[in-house]
Amino acid sequence: MKIFTKFICLSIVAVSLLTGCDIENRCSCIEIENNVKYFENYHYNLEENTKEIVDSLEELRDLFHNEDSQDVKKYINKFDDEFFIDNSLVIIVLSASHPRHKVTVTSFEPKNNKLRITVELRSNVPPFSSVETVIEFHLIIIETTKKEIKDCTDVEVTIAEPSC
Fold it and tell me: pTM of this prediction?
C-alpha cells in the first residue's frame, strides 16, 4: 500500500510539473491523506454544514447516536477512550449541487484558534453531460492529534475549485 501511495504522489507531482499546475496545496494534503475518511452520498444523521471537533468518545456517540449508515457505524466503532486521550476527530458534512463530485481535503491548518480546512470538489462528470444535477452530501472525518489543533475552538471550511 505504501508503494502505491508513493506512486500516486509522484504521479501527481509529475503531472503537475508537466502541466504547470501549482502543487503547493496538494503537498499539504499528503501529510494528512491517510488520516481522512470520506463517505460520499451521505444522507443520514448529521445536518449539512456540520463542522465539529470531537474530543471524546462520549461526544462522538452523541453526534452519531441515530446513525443509519452501516459504513459510518462500522468506522466510528473503531474509536475508543484510549484513542481520545491524545487524539481528536474533525467531522464535516458538505453539500455539492453538481453531480458526482470527488471530495479531497487539500489543506488542514490550525491558525488563530481556528482550524482552517480547504476542501476541493472535482466533478467526475464530463462538461456538458446530460447527467441530472442533484444535491449530494459528503461526510468527512479527519483524525488528528490534540496537540496539532491545540486551542482551536472553531472549524472554518473553504470549498475550492480544482487548481488544475
Answer: 0.72
